[in-house]
Design brief:
This protein is α+β, with helices and mostly antiparallel strands and 310 residues long. Helices cover 33% and strands 23% of the residues. It has helices spanning 41-69, 95-107, 121-126, 141-144, 200-205, 225-233, 244-253, 278-293, 296-304, and strands spanning 5-10, 15-20, 29-30, 71-76, 79-80, 84-86, 92-93, 110-115, 132-133, 147-149, 154-163, 193-196, 219-222, 239-243, 257-259, 265-269, 272-274. The chain binds glutamine.
């Protein structure tokens, strides 16, 4: 407690001392001669006033802590349009940002967004630096070992972006052939896949070809999807594999790119919360349920991904 108060009435000495912070010089100093039975009304009133002041200060200290508790710290990576990005005005925008705002509203909390690298979100949530992670984050069994996930609020698929003049028609073209079990036998010479570090695109692509990956040595990780796109434009990678909605945004914003037919994977998006914050997770789930039921989530999604473009 910032304001550690001591309130001492030294009857023996016949004086009252009110001090703030242990060890600090007692302030203010009021003398009341109790033994003599002299009750100076003015002094008693002054003492009461000081007590009231102390109580107010304690309340402020307490209220300060409460205000801090009322902040919902959300970690995201604001380079993932239309789920999270920074608008032209410099403010955070996107589906996750708006849904999180509504959740915070329902929880009576103030949303505070922290823009961090995607691959630091889970550890930040685990250590309590952030209350939740919301970043178009896919639920995976591996991640479930570290954090808990809310109910799903959206689905995503990993899409494959290539240069518009590419002769590849599907990611299956990146493999040399398929075995009797239907799984790829190997990756064609020179295939290089760009991914965003730590994402499911990265995890699945880095796997071995027999598991529909491309082998770690054929995968280049970039800090953001935007950097992977730059690498694709510069001819450093054959394709970028990334979630479909950001993929559409990147293709719309950059000339000379296209998305190949087919889905590399299908995934569920959810909010992650530390394992020991079950109460918060329950509150988030209740809020999410209400926001889904009353159409708020659908409205927000429609705003960013109009159904005629889906
Ligand atoms: N859905 C992907 C994942 O969870 C990518 C998320 C992101 O880059 N923000 O790994």
């Amino acid at each position: 407690m910032e304001f550690l108060c001591i309130f001492l009435l030294q009857y023996e000495k016949g004086c009252g001392i009110i001090g703030m912070r242990t060890g600090a010089k007692p302030v203010p100093y009021i003398r009341i001669n109790l033994r003599k039975g002299v009750f100076n009304m003015k002094k008693i009133l002054a003492l009461l006033a000081v007590v009231a002041l102390m109580a107010t200060m304690l309340c402020f200290a307490g209220c300060g802590e409460k205000a801090e508790d009322e902040v919902l710290d959300m970690a995201t990576n604001a380079a993932f349009p239309p789920y999270e990005y920074k608008g032209d005005d410099g403010n955070f925008a996107g589906i996750d940002v708006e849904i999180a705002g509504k959740i915070a509203e329902k929880l009576g909390m103030t949303l505070k967004i922290h823009d961090v690298d995607f691959d630091t979100i889970i550890s930040g949530v685990q250590t309590g630096k952030f209350d939740m992670g919301m970043a178009g984050m896919t639920v995976t069994d591996e991640r479930k070992k570290s954090v808990n996930f809310s109910d799903t609020y959206a689905t995503g698929v990993q899409a494959v972006i290539v240069k518009a003049d590419s002769t590849y028609t599907s990611y299956e073209d990146f493999y040399t052939g398929f075995g009797d079990d239907g799984n790829p036998l190997g990756t064609k010479e020179g295939i290089k896949i760009g991914v965003q570090q730590g994402t499911t695109g990265d995890i699945y692509c880095s796997d071995e070809p027999a598991k529909w990956g491309f082998g770690m040595s054929n995968v280049t990780q970039y800090k953001t999807g935007a950097e992977a796109i730059e690498a694709l434009k510069g001819g450093k990678v054959t394709a970028v594999i990334i979630d479909n909605e950001p993929a559409k945004s990147f293709v719309a914003a950059n000339e000379g790119l296209k998305i190949l037919e087919g889905k590399y994977t299908e995934e569920d998006y959810a909010i992650c919360v530390a394992k020991d914050k079950e109460e918060l997770l329950n509150k988030i789930n209740t809020a999410l349920k209400e926001l889904i039921a009353d159409g708020t989530v659908a409205q927000i999604v429609e705003k960013y991904i109009p159904s005629d473009e889906k």
